[in-house]
Amino acid sequence: MEINGKTRVCGLIGNPVEHTLSPIIHNTLAERLGQNLVYVPFPVEMGKVADAVVGADALQLLGLNVTVPYKSEVIAGLKEIDALAKDIGAVNTLVRTDGGYKGYNTDMEGLYRAMMSDGVKIDGEQIILLGAGGVARAVAYLCAVKGADKVYLLNRTFDKARAVAEEVNHTSGREVIIPMHTEDYVTLPGGKYLAIQGTSVGLAPHVEDVVIADDAFYEKIHTGFDLIYSPWETRFMRLTREHGGRAYNGLKMLLYQGIIAYELWNDVKVSEEDAQAVYEMLREHFI
Ligand code: ATR
Fold first, then answer.
1. Per-residue pLDDT reduced to its tens digit, 65-97
2. How far is the CA of 199 from the centre of ligand 1 (A)?
């Protein structure tokens, strides 16, 4: 593409940003949709997020994604925040408006679209959610608002699981999240579960790590969804498949959170054909 005086700029702020795949998503979409837009990563040092947002506004950057470790910290510098992002307490997308940026959370809607595209449903499901960090908390909220029947929130540190459950049950207005110690999975009621892996355990290079290794756990799972996408198949996914379950990684979540951000910035709807084309580009990095 030709960069000229009318090129609009979007980007990513975080630390580190060197390994991001987001430029592939946005620059491929801009090319396919014939839009004069470039997307670049901007590393931002600790303590400089507010400055970065002020600077971005002065430079009239169309939009920004926000990644680790700034998804909560960035909120203080916004002009406005979308209701869902406020409930989740994390923002990953900024859209420039008159007088500042409005913050959104497209991670959760991205996860939901990824699940729908793979035929994985939340409504009415019995769900096991591993982890009680920032990511798992947002997933718990998504499950609560999308009609999960029960969400058993398993975490190594029980107090964190309890705090997340109390908060999400309160915000969503449903008593749906049940906190548990990870090792108490043996006491889960019978039946088959959708299990969502929301911890960082198993992330490359620690590919043999897994929160629960016991075969009996995987016999309870009909579908395993790992939010990790590197490695392509985590041990959690492998164990799920070995016990007859379906398993998915987090790459489609990455894809759709980006697509939703792109749609917000450009006021367009990205077709499934374009989404699929971008997915294939992303996949090439893992083959
Ligand atoms: P994020 O914002 O990415 O969710 P986080 O807030 O640091 O990151 O949360 C990490 C999650 O992974 C937590 O649920 C953490 O469990 P604790 O609350 O007990 O710390 C979980 N986690 C990290 N390393 C783990 C390990 N080795 N075994 C089990 N759980 C682990």
1. 999 999 999 999 999 999 999 999 999 999 999
2. 5
* Six token digits for residue 81: 């925040």
**Angstrom distance (rounded) from CA 145 to CA 129:** 15
Q: Are 132 and 153 in contact (CB under 8 A)?
A: yes
Chain segment 134-176, per-residue pLDDT in tens = 899 999 999 999 999 999 999 999 999 999 999 999 999 999 9
Mutate to test the pocket of ligand 1, among 92, 135, 199, 228 (most ligand atoms within 8 A of CB): 199
Give the single-character DSSP code of 50: H
Measure the CA dihedral 263/269/274/278, to 10°.
20
pLDDT tens-digit profile of 188-197? 999 999 999 9
| E strands, 44-122, in order | 63-66, 80-81, 93-97, 100-104
Instruction: Classify 23 as helix, strand or coil.
Output: helix
**What single-letter amino acid sits at 187?**
T
Rounded Cα distance, 260 and 249, in Å = 19
Q: Is the pLDDT of residue 287 over 90?
A: no
Do residues 124 and 103 touch, judged by C-beta distance below 8 A? no
Residue of 153, 156, 196, 203 with the most ligand 1 atoms within 8 Å of its CB, for mutation: 156
CB of 199 closer than 6 angstroms to any ligand 1 atom: yes
Cα 132 to ligand 1 centre (Å): 7
| Cα–Cα distance measured from residue 158 to residue 152, given in angstroms and rounded to the nearest whole number | 12
For the entire predicted model, the pTM comes to 0.95
DSSP state of 191: S
